Amino acid sequence: MADDEIILADLSDDELVLQMHDDLYDGLKEEIEEGVNILIARGWTPYDTLTKALVAGMTIVGADFRDGILFVPEVLLAANAMKAGMFILKPLLAETGAPRMGRMVIGTVKGDIHDIGKNLVAMMMEGAGFEVRDLGINNSVEKYLEALDLDKPDILGMSALLTTTMPYMKVVIDTMKEKGLRDDYIVLVGGAPLNEEFSKAIGADAYCRDAAVAVETAKAYMLRKHNAISA
Amino acid sequence: MALNETSVPDDETLTHLGMAELKSGRVLLIACGALAHEVLAVKKLNRWDHLDLQCLPANLHLWPEKITEAVVAAVCKYQALYDSIHVLYADCGTGGQLLEKCKELGVEMMPGPHCYSFFEGDAVFAERSEIEFTAFYLTDFLVRQFDSFVWRPMGLDRHPELRNMYFAHYTKLVYQAQTDDPDLDVKAEACARRLGLTYERRFTGYGDLITAMAKAADNH
To answer: What CATH number did the domain enclosing A58 receive?
Structure first.
C-alpha cells in the first residue's frame, strides 16, 4: 500500500464527502461505491448521500465541462461512477422515501441513436428527485405520445444530436398541439446542434444546453406549475 | 502557414492549422481543412486556377460551436480582397448558425448537414439516412486521421471501456472513399474492427463538392 493512499473509512464525514467529489471528478467507480456504502453505514440517509456526495460532485463535473476544463470522456467516466453509486442508493431511496420533484419522460428522437447527453440528463434529473422514464433512442411520435398517456409526466424531454433529426422535435410538438395535449406538459429540448432560437421556433418551453441547465429549468418550471395550481 | 503555398500540407498541419493557397485574388474558397486534398484535386482536374483556397483547421469539428465564428472571421478578412467568396462547409453541427451568418455576409455555402452527405450527394444521403442511421462514417481524411479525430478525443486510447457508451447503438462503419486507395481501405477496415463495427467501403468520389466548386468557378 502506498504511504499516501487515502483510506476512505478513516475520513470524517465532511472529508469523505469532499473526497467523493474528487473521486467522482476522476471517474473512480469503485471508490464511489465504497464511499456510498460508508456513508450509509454511518447512518446517512440515502437522500443526503445522493445529493451531498453524488449530485454535488457531478455538478462540479458539469460546470467544468461547460467551462472547457473537462471533456466528454472524463464526464462519461464521472457519470459511470455516479451511476454505480446511484445503483446502490436507488432501492434504499425507494424504501426510505425522498422528496419527489415531478415526473419526466425523456428520449432521443426518431432516426437518432445518440444518447450520451440524454442519459446524463436522465441521471441528473433522477439525482434531483425526478422520477424519470427513459424511452431510449429512435423514438417516433407515437412512442412519445404513448408514454405521455401511460406515465402522465409533468415534463417531456427530447434530445437530438443531428441537424437532420432535430426537426423531428417539431413533429412531436405539432402532433401534441393537434391532439390538444401540448399545454399539459412542459417540453424541454436539448442536443449539440440545438439552440434557444430553435427551441422557440418549434414551440418547446425551453432549450437546455446541458444536464445541469436541464435540472434547473425543470425545477423552475415545476415551481411555476405548483404556483399556478395553488393560485 | 505561409501564404502562396502550392503543395498540400500534411494532415497534422491541416488538422491544427489549416492551409492557404492564395494566388489569383479572384474567387476564394473557405473550406474545412479536412477537405484540402479533395478541393485541390477537383481544382487541378478542372484547371480552375482562378480559385484560391483558405482552409481552416480541421479540428474545429471537435468543437462545432467554434466553426461559425472562424468562418465569419475568414470571410471578413478576405471579403474586400476577392470578387467572390464561397464557403465549403455544410451545416457541420452548427445548428443553422453558419447558414444564417453566411446569408448575412452574402456568401454561399454548401447545402446539407455535413461532408458525409455532400460526398455521397445530399439527395441520396438524405434518402439513405432514413434506414442507415446506425452507421458511423469516415472519409479519406478521417481514415488517415482516425486517431486524432475519433480515438483520442473520445478517450478510447485511455479508457477503452467507454466504447459501449459511444458506439453501443452503431452497427457498421461506412468508409466513404473519395479515392481508390487500397491502403486506406485496409486502414478503414481496421478502424471498424477497433470500434467493434462491421465494415463497408463505399466509393463516393467528390460528390456534390464538384457542383459547389463549379458554381464558385463560374461566379467571377
So the answer is: 1.10.1240.10
Considering the domain boundaries, does residue A77 fall inside one?
Answer: yes
pLDDT in tens, A104-114: 999 999 999 99
Residues of A with Cβ-Cβ distance to B114 under 8 angstroms? 163
Grid coordinates representing A71?
471533456
Look up residue A29 and give its amino acid.
K
Name the A residues in 151-210 with CB < 8 Å from any B CB: 162-166, 192-195, 198
- Residue B202 · residue B175 · CB < 8 Å: yes
Architecture of domain B11-115+206-218: 3-Layer(aba) Sandwich (3.40)
Residues of A in contact with B165 (CB under 8 A): 76, 80, 116
Residue window 8-67, chain A: list those with CB within 8 Å of chain B.
none
Specify the residue for cell string 436522465. Answer: A122
C-alpha cell at position A156: 417531456
Specify the DSSP class assigned to residue B214.
H
State which H helix or E strand residue A220 sits in: helix A211-230
Query: Is the full-model pTM beyond 0.90?
Result: no
Is residue A121 within 8 Å of residue A211, measured between CB atoms? yes
Strands A102-108 and B84-88: unpaired
Q: What are phi and psi of B206, to 5 degrees?
A: -95, -5
- What distance in Å separates the CA atoms of residue B18 and residue B35, rounded to the nearest whole number? 10
Backbone torsions φ then ψ of A3, nearest 5 degrees: -60, -35
DSSP character for A209? S
> Which of A45, A73, A96 is a domain's end point?
A96
Whole-angstrom Cα distance, residue B70 to residue B130?
32
Q: Cell triple for residue B5?
A: 503555398
Give me the helices (H) in chain B, please. 11-16, 36-46, 67-78, 97-105, 115-120, 122-129, 140-144, 146, 163-167, 182-195, 208-218
pLDDT in tens, B112-150: 999 999 999 999 999 998 889 999 999 999 999 999 999
CA-based nearest residue to A65, from A51, A85, A49, A79: A79
Q: Does B205 touch chain A (CB under 8 A)?
A: no
ipTM of the complex: 0.84
Domain count, chain A: 2
Contact A80 B165 (CB under 8 A): yes
Eight-class DSSP state of B93: T
A112 and A219 co-located in one domain = yes
